[in-house]
Amino acid sequence: MEPKADIALIGLAVMGQNLILNMNDHGFIVVAYNRTVEKVDQFLANEAKGTKVLGAHSIPEMVAQLKKPRRVMMLVKAGKPVDEFIEQLLPHLEPGDIIIDGGNSLFEDTIRRAKYVESKGLLYIGTGVSGGEEGARHGPSIMPCGSPAAWPHVKAIFQGVSAKVENNVPCCDWVGEGGAGHYVKMVHNGIEYGDMQLICEAYNLMKTGLGMTPDQMHEVFAEWNKGELDSYLIEISRDILAYKDTDGSPLVEKILDTAGQKGTGKWTVVSSQDLGIPITLIAEAVYARCVSAMKEERVAAAKKLKGPKPTIKGDQKKFIEAIRQALYASKIVSYAQGYMLMRAAAAENKWNLNYGGIALMWRGGCIIRSAFLGKIKEAFDKNSKLSNLMLDPFFKKAIKDCQRSWRNVVAMAAKKGIPVPAFSTALAFYDSYRSERLPANLLQAQRDYFGAHTYERLDKPRGEFFHTNWTGRGGTTASGTYTV
Q: Is 378 a catalytic residue?
């Protein structure tokens, strides 16, 4: 039988099924396979009924239906399952065939796998796919990386099924070699953590501080979504606040306040520490989820640890606008930090990242899609060497316009005992970044005092290191120079 399928997809969970149906809608013939083969039959008899989707009950049967070069995409759990499927696929594929990992893999695993698969004569792509089940079905953001020679063979499929923005531009392009695409997806997820935490803090200020009902907050988010905060996450927050349980009461108020996480936010923070880049807002968003998980401890502590009454008095409408401005300014800081991290990772791994292009890929289809990203693309289109997003004229002015409200909101939250870790750390980073001098001179003196770690001097060239015998009892031997 003549092979007629364009691509195979392994993994028939929600994302896999929806991506297959999306590919089918765009004229690509897909072979569906799943480790539990009963799922293949169920999918073909139900969701894929009436489509051109093909099924396979074994890897050899799947491969036999593929045109050359064979393209096999996995949407399976990150980690060991990906490596296991690679080993199962290799004996059945030929040089030039392409293995694609579309899961949320750690970028370092993608670097390793690309080298391994290439050593066998095959090509490898690791790609971030963002947008959840809705995105997978109707157009996700896709961030591919790995073997450059593979890109021409998957470009039409990936760009065909991806989300489109103004002038039908696809939210998908080649990101780079090695693990560049999965790294960009990881940072995307970290920023997603930050955006969600900022929105939750705004919600908490209105709920706990202003005593607003979910219906009232729904109206606020609906209004915010018409302006510069226009985004998918603001939009779904608007809808969630209006949603009623079967008894007619707001469902959001019945949901347990403990947040889960799958690890990509943590990976982003760990990578930032390895590279020495302060993505403080994403870190606080990760830790906020950790604190939320301490539910029983928090319930017990609430009975013993007292603080001020959280009620915020005064002009409610004015304070709501101040919250909006604080959210917008903090969001700018979060994206600035995310782009700082990508720039450092690109230098470390010798990736040539297109920062404006990344903003475009995130402009549609993905969870953090927003009008705001169009401004980021414009910033990098004007200055591809931009060192920090906050230095772009548009964002510099935006922070200037929001700054008074931002400071007032953080100060009021502190006075009223309402936790706003993301708002607060964003402001602290902004103030640190704009400070010509920080107190790290004392810190360096402390390190030299107790550990002879040396320091540099303002009145000497950078790169010259000094040690002081602070007590008169120490020697002149230093422990070595330091890394900044």
A: no
